[in-house]
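Internal tracking record. Fields below are filled automatically when a chain is submitted to the structure queue. Please do not edit lines marked as system-generated. If the sequence contains nonstandard residues, flag them in the REMARKS field before resubmitting.
Queue: standard
Priority: normal
Entity type: single polypeptide chain
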Amino acid sequence: MVRTTNKPVAANARRGSAHKRAPDSTRSRVMSRGSVAGRPHVVIVGAGFGGLTAAKGLAKAAVEVTLIDRENHHLFQPLLYQVATAGLSPAEIAWPIRGLVRGQRNTRVLLGEVTGVERERHVVTMGERKVSYDFLVIATGTTHSYFGNEGWAEYAPGLKSIDDATEIRHRLLVAFERAEMENDPKERERLLTIVVVGGGPTGVEMAGAVAELTRKALAADFRTIDPKHTRVILIEAGPRLLPTFPKDLSSYAERALDSLGVEVRLGRAITGCDAAGVTLGDERLPAGTVIWAAGVAASPAAAWLGVEADRAGRVKVTERLTVPGDDDVFVIGDTALVLDANGEPLPGLAPVAKQEGAYVAKVIKACLSGKTVPPFRYRERGKLATIGRRAAIIEFAGLKLKGWLAWWIWGIAHIYFLISLRNRLIVATHWLWSYVTFERGARLITGMHLDAERDGHR
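SYSTEM-GENERATED OUTPUT FOLLOWS
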């Protein structure tokens, strides 16, 4: 059991470098605080790519691990847009956390939401509950950022969770059902207009998938409307799509979207968003569905810790991924601001979070054995983005690929990184079936009673 007392910690207990302490001093230090069954206690907040990798890296270490998450599942976010566009079902890209660590005798899982951290006491707060720690790893990811316009969230859901994806899928499919029954041509046109805000990888992949859903999978399913006439608009405030990719690949992505019938609006930022559509300066775009992929903000980890953060809320960490002045607290993944060799922030990608999680596990084990670990260095694994079912772009170590071959590599890579063999086989089978037939088998509409309740309160 985790000891949850709030025993004060001596000020000098947290000083020094975690990777240079001698084994004896380390053991006596951790035994005085959050130790469990005579072993140091590692608390990991967040079971995303970074947190789960850290937990697995400590599977055989002489520590006790508590993994805390507000969801009971680990999510493969790179394929979340396919749930939102009815290509995959949620169970195919998510796995119960307890099942993933059931073989780790030193690890337990707590379902709950962290509300704060008391660094002086080495305690994580979960509402009324307090969990003490010897080492703390924060990997809480990001949430949507509406750049100060939080009221837009009601009308333009983002894409970070299973709930987000199923909500977007619900809105897309319901819009077509309502258009089928609508007699007013203008309202029907509005319902069949879909706006995606944000030209990064999520926005590009979403726009391409929505276009294929409307022009292929739904094309023959309705009698009054023609889904092929759906208007899909991708809005990007910057001068080009996919700004982290080379310009030639960005241009290719724009051409590929155009071939799918997607209207790309560059250099335009939305200035308004409501239930009827969006506004771009003086231009009004009526829309039945608006999807937000324009910005993210880090979790409130910086506020919990009382440390400096950048404009996106990411914690500024040391070269060993610790909070400055506190070698026992690590921050990784999208929650952390980590700079590469050129002084540029590392992107919010799964490979980054996984490498950081593995590194933190190594540092903790080295701390317990008195060994040293060099500073964290990210090994570039390349960048990938897909545009529909036959086009993708890849950049890796100066090599640039685009088109059909890149799409196959993208698909193989994503299937490979799925956690279980079962899910790999299911996703591969679904993709092959969809590729041959254009069918999307996850087109279930749920939550209609919630729509009725919302409409009743308007």
